[in-house]
Amino acid sequence: MSTAIPPLDSWVAVDETHTAEAGAHGSADLGFKLAKCLPLLHAAPATDAFTRALETGALADVWRKVVPAEWTLMLGATSKRIRAALARLPMHLRLPGVFTVFRKNSEAISCVLPRVQEWCRITTINLEHCHIGDEGIERLVRPLLMCHSLRRLNLWGNDISADGAGRLAGVLEHLPSLAYLSLWGNKIGDEGAGRLALGLRHCTSLDHLDIRSINIGVEGASKLAEGLGACTSLTYLTLDGYDNKILTAGVKMLSKALERLPSLTHLDLSCNDIGAEGAGFLAAALQQVASVAYLGLRWNKMGAEGATRLTGALGYLTALDHLLLEGNAIGDAGVESLSAGLGECPSLTYLNLDHNQIRVECARRLAGAVGHLTVSCRQ
Known about the structure:
This protein is of the alpha/beta class. Helix content is 45%, strand content 9%. It is built from 14 helices and 11 strands. The chain has helices spanning 8-37, 44-56, 58-66, 80-88, 106-112, 133-144, 162-172, 189-200, 218-228, 247-258, 275-286, 303-314, 331-342, 360-369; strands spanning 71-74, 122-126, 152-154, 180-182, 208-210, 236-238, 266-268, 294-296, 322-324, 350-352, 374-376. An 11-stranded parallel sheet has the order 1-2-3-4-5-6-7-8-9-10-11, sandwiched between helices. Helix 5 runs parallel beside helix 6 (133-144). The model is unreliable at 1-37, 39-43, 66-70 and 91-103 (pLDDT under 50).
């Protein structure tokens, strides 16, 4: 994973330019980038670059420019060399609000909590893949109640069940600034989804919700729909993943909530087996959400009939840029139906039709009919 991370020297050079141009919003994004990348630095070149940046004070200077008033709580496994470099730093060079813990379980929470003196200043908590479980969530509840400035909470891959989701839901109403929430890969199930929905009703500032692979079905989707309707600031919603199967009945209920999300730009419901009828329910809802730019519906068993029903919404999606329909067995007949609506999507640049039992000549006709479109059609 570390090979994908740019050298820290380039971060320092780029970040100063970025900070000057981006303003406050860009600075927050950059601070989140740095916080997410730090636990991943295991390869020697990246560790060397990071250590040099720490020891020269360059990274600390950039960090202050990027997040002068923002604090990040980050738990993760970091190399011993980086840990040693952090420990050697003089106090005036230490990165504000970065707490690194080296145990990936609920004990990590207990280890770090006494060291955090100003919870009210923390804006980002990144516990990605720390496996803290329900016990860790329980230990985190009280501090979270003090995080009045918290904007980003990443709990991806933490072995959280329905009970943990319930405890978290009880905290959400006390986080008025929360804009980013990820529960990806936590098996909260239908019961946990119901509890989470109660908390989501208070998340009027939430912009990004990632609930991939949380092991929900029709019941969970129906319960989530009740809470999602209140998240009127939501722009990013992803509910895909092979562990989610909301089916036709689930997407019917979810579609009612989507109609109340006027700012939605990214929607991914892939791998949920919504079928042709489900595609029809979704198409009706999308007519009310013209802002959608990315629509992911891969592996949903839609067939040619589902493609035809989806076509009814395309004329309303004037901002649509990416449409992913991979693995839906829509065949040549489905492509013919789609071609009629795709011409009404002036912003569409990419269409994925991989693994749809489509003949090459049919895909070529579609690409020729819509000149601005890149079509992927691997079979």
